[in-house]
Amino acid sequence: MRSGAPLRHRGRRYLAAALVVSVLGLGVPAVWENYLSSLPPLDTQAALKGSAVAVDRNGKLLRAFTTADGRWRLPVSTTDVDPRYLAMLLAYEDRRFYSHHGVDWRSLARAAVQMLRNGRIVSGGSTITMQVARLVDPPQEQRSLAAKLRQIVRALELERTHSKAEILDLYLALAPYGGNLEGVRAASISWFGMEPRRLSYAEQALLVALPQAPEARRPDRDLRAALRARDRILARALGSGLMSAQEEAAAKHETLSGERKPFPALAAHATQAAHLADPERRSLQFTIDQRLQQTLEQLVKESVERLGSKVTAAMLVIDNATGEVLAHVGSADHLGTERAGAIDMTLALRSPGSALKPFIYALAFESGIAHPETLLDDRPSRYGQYAPENFDLTFQGQVTARRALQNSLNVPAVELLNEVGPARFLARLRNAGATIAMSDEAPAGLAIALGGLGISLRDIARLYAGLARKGDVPDLVERRDLPPPPRRQQQISEPVAAWYVDDVLRGAPPPMNALAGGIAFKTGTSYGYRDALAIGFDRKITIAVWFGRADNGAVPGLVARQVAAPVLFDAFARAGASYEPIVPPANVIVSTTAGLPPPLRHLRKDAPKTVAAASTAQLKIAYPPDGARVDLGLKGQPQAASALALKAQGGVAPFIWMVNGVPVGTPDLRRHTQWRPDGSGFARVSVIDAKGASDSVVVRLE
Q1: Is the peptide bond before 624 cis (omega within 30 degrees of 0)?
Q2: SS3 for 371-408, per residue?
Q3: What is the pLDDT of residues 323-365, one digit of tens each?
Q4: pLDDT tens digits for 198-218?
Q5: Confidence label for 679 from pLDDT (cuts 50, 70 and 90)
Q6: Which of 630, 642, 620 is nearest to 686 (CA)?
Q7: Helix (H, G, I), strand (E, B), or coil: what is residue 680?
Q8: Alpha-carbon distance 117 to 11, whole Å?
């Protein structure tokens, strides 16, 4: 008798509360107004301030961050859940939700009477609105009469200031689901590993049951209690006509692991950096594609497992048209300490190996020094103390520039760099927006052709995307919720030269079992097997892959063609690549070696130099001067504009003039000619003499 007395006493108190509230609500509205005016206004927005979330380009979750007090509270609304769940929730919690005004007086009175008769709580009298009021404005004492009265008053206030849909949204976002989980979305992801719109009947029933006793029914603490509560909800749903007997039976037989799933942390490096930069922002939207990001993170993780415990990898996918980053994999495991996973290796300055060779060839092509079919000599050479060697320590003799680049021969690349000049090559990379790390102790040398500098994977990816865009290097964009930065005009090459490189790289021999000719790609292995890169592009996307150790340690056998190239081709397949070739610009020269002008057929001239030849003045363009702005009347009527005069001094006739990589006329014994442009803009003018000497200037035509 004594043990039951406190329960009966509390039951009488709740019954009395229900009767008092009913009388006040029906007969003394002024009392309500006075009580409402004594309370501070409800701040539902402050209550809803939850976890910051990072979403992809389509609004899908990439990553969430806990609140300041360590809770998971993800934004959610009725449109984010299955309508069947809402129907099940209302059938169990608040059948008259859409007809009452915050308080279901009949349910409240019935609950009080049942408690009085049975000495225990038989059914709850709280509506969903009252539960929301308790969550938004928690009382100091949960079981006191004053607390119940305050909850009722707050529920009536909520109904006056919020729509039914808004109140449901508040419940879905704030209801407790055990531990540090608040809201149905956080609970769905944590208990089932998926968004609430994709849940089964059994999973929905458990989420209806959990808020009633979130700690007692937690599946990871008492799985049997969780299943019993779930089954009661399913029985209520059956009785309400929300499911058939067969569906109920199948749902009750559905297993539940009872383990919490980790929250997704896709694009961890990009999302973490954005959150730290602006911790107050609740929603961060990226240009990343969630599905692609997830599949490429898995690819990278699988790829490093066979390479050793300290090897990591990074990958970037760029939309060539917009410069948007579609996938950003900073490391193989962002939580792994042995692989130093916290470091974003897409930003690390590393040796590119041979990955920058295509840009040497592009510079040579646009300068009129070479053409893809120009013959180069792959034979022992020495430049002072520097004697480059090929990767396999062999020489192939005379090869075309096309074959030299496709097979990544070192000696021809160094020879071309010697012709265009290392300083000019570095200036081109930097003018295109790349950050280059060089030793301060010595000037740039020919070794940069083979990776003797530092550059990030992000910058390499941008440069290759520039080749796909006819030489125009894009600014990378990774956020959709921020205004885009001012567009910078950055060129890595002229359009014709960029297409030549694309055409050459598309014919590079692919790795075993890969599609030939599908993408233009290049690999790079750094000295000492510390870095392995593979970068490829088609018309739509560019993908860059890097393997190595974060501490710059050597990895025996880390050869890009064997390690990085297969992953690159796999990534293109997973990205649904179109393999569309890039459309060639006008004025490209498609020719055999024999069909080229004589100075372009062979780069090196080995005939003994005569005294006369030695005393010949250096070839130089006398007009137009480099950097000049020449008014030809192109802004008025281009068809009536003047031709551009071209004049050279020094050198040995005959001369070949080229504008933007395209020959002007035929070889000429005279040192002057003219060229008629078809529009205003920048133009690169080059001249080559009979000995292969060349000069080049850039002018602006108006």
Answers
A1: yes
A2: CCCCEEEECCCCECCECCCCCCCCCCEEEEHHHHHHCC
A3: 999 999 999 999 999 999 999 999 999 999 999 999 999 999 9
A4: 999 999 999 999 999 999 999
A5: confident
A6: 620
A7: coil
A8: 8
Tokens 């003039």, located at residue: 657
**In this predicted structure, which of 102-111, 149-158, 312-321, 684-693 has the lowest mean pLDDT?**
102-111
Q: What is the dihedral of CA 607, 611, 615, 620, to 10 degrees?
A: -20
Question: Is there a contact between 32 and 24 (Cβ–Cβ < 8 Å)?
Answer: yes
Contact 689, 655 (CB under 8 A): yes
Q: What is the CA radius of gyration of the chain?
A: 36
User: How far from the centroid of its chain's Cα atoms is residue 155's Cα?
Assistant: 44
pLDDT, average across residues 276-280: 93
Centre a 10 Å sphere on the Cβ of residue 158 and count the other Cβ atoms it contains: 22
Distances (CA, A) of 316 to 293, 475, 525, 571: 10, 14, 18, 10
Burial of 413: CB neighbours in 10 Å, binned 0-12, 13-18, 19+: buried
DSSP of 143-195 = TSHHHHHHHHHHHHHHHHHS-HHHHHHHHHHH-B-STTEESHHHHHHHHHSS-
Nearest to 589 by CA among 658, 685, 662, 673: 662
The β-bridge partners of 315 are: 329, 545
3 state SS for 256-301:
CCCCCCCCCECCHHHHHHHHHHCCCCCEEEECCCHHHHHHHHHHHH
Q: What is the pLDDT of residues 130-139, one digit of tens each?
A: 999 889 887 6
Name the catalytic one among 93, 248, 297, 494.
93
List the beta bridge partners of residue 691. none
Tokens of 451: 């990776």
Q: Stretch 446-454: mean pLDDT, rounded?
A: 93
Q: Is the peptide bond before 654 cis (omega within 30 degrees of 0)?
A: yes
Known catalytic residue at 93: yes
Q: Is 373 a catalytic residue?
A: no
Query: Is the separation of the CB atoms in 493 and 504 below 8 Å?
Result: no
> Which amino acid is located at 181 in the chain?
L
Q: What is the pLDDT of residue 60?
A: 96
Question: Which amino acid, one-letter code, is at 340?
Answer: A
pLDDT reading at 506 higher than 90 = yes
Q: Which region among 13-22, 54-63, 87-96, 304-313 has the lowest average model confidence (pLDDT)? A: 13-22
What pLDDT, on a 0 to 100 scale, did the predictor assign at position 636?
A: 67
Question: In whole angstroms, how far apart are CA 342 and each of 263, 293, 345?
Answer: 17, 17, 9
Distance CA 17, CA 20 (A): 5
CA 279/CA 447 separation, integer angstroms: 44
* CB-based burial label for 184 (10 Å; 0-12, 13-18, 19+): buried
Tokens of 607: 């005939």
Within 447-559, residue ranges assigned H as helices are: 457-468, 495-506
Strand partners, 546: 314, 533
Q: Which helix (H) or strand (E) holds 665?
A: strand 662-668
Nearest to 660 by CA among 631, 643, 681, 640: 681
Query: Which residue in the list 303, 351, 354, 526 is annotated as catalytic?
Result: 354
How much is the pTM? 0.80
DSSP H or E run through 237: helix 223-239
